[in-house]
Amino acid sequence: MTSVSETSEIGGVGPSSTERIRKAALANFAVHGTASTSLRAVAATAGVSLGMVQHHFATKSALIKAVDDYVVSFVIGGMAEPIPEPPADSITDIGSRVRGLIAEHPDVAAYVGRAMVDGSPLGATLFDALMEVGTARWELRAERGEVRPDVDLTWATINALVLAVGAISLRAHVDRHLPEPFTTPSQLRRWQEATDDLLRDGLFQHPDD
Q: Which ranges does the entry annotate as DNA-binding region (predicted)?
């Protein structure tokens, strides 16, 4: 039987079944992980039949790949945008991008956090890609004379990445030490300000240096 949501796709109303299924899979993967998520659960979340899921994604592996490809493209695309020229604050610029990702796309952030610690290929792909983007960014800052000459750029990149990914991956523990959940606007703003200050004050040149 064709569901209402499938009928709407035929009529050209709303997102396609493929998009709904991918979004539903991402939401389930973020909470339960890929191993514990069935195609039937994805179909229920998407509001389509199991047959429709299998029509668009023949296997669970194919669905996982589609979600992973989307997440990699989305995350790296946002983080790889050029940083602003001085005197604009590139630390705040990147911090705002990360905060926006967590606030506006919580399923993506949660899935990234899970992937980074569960040993999945997605975690390795994302970490390596973010390292490449981050290294280029810190090298550019060094060329501009923004960072101290003694800064280890490899560890500057790793530390910045760990500060972001660590907060997402350890959110359950972080939440216990905050007055509100980490993902509330006030706590995300507080986290960004603290992280930005740590990176800027610890690694950047200061007028009296």
A: 38-57
Please name the residues in contact with 145: beta carbons below 8 A apart, sequence gap of 6 or more.
Answer: 205
CATH code for the domain defined by 4-58? 1.10.10.60
Residue 127 phi/psi, 5-degree rounding, is -60, -45
Burial class (CB in 10 A: 0-12, 13-18, 19+), 43: buried
Q: What Rg value do the Cα atoms of the chain yield, rounded?
A: 20
Q: Which CATH number fits domain 68-203: 1.10.150.240, 3.40.50.1980, 1.10.357.10, 3.40.50.1240?
A: 1.10.357.10
Residues facing residue 17 across a β-bridge: none
Low-confidence ranges of the chain (pLDDT < 70): 1-15, 208-209
User: How far is CA 5 from each of CA 17, 24, 167, 169, rounded to the nearest angstrom?
Assistant: 8, 13, 36, 34
- One-letter amino acid identity for 201? D
Residue 53 in contact with residue 10, Cβ under 8 Å?
Answer: no
pTM (2 d.p.): 0.87
Tokens of 163: 């500060």
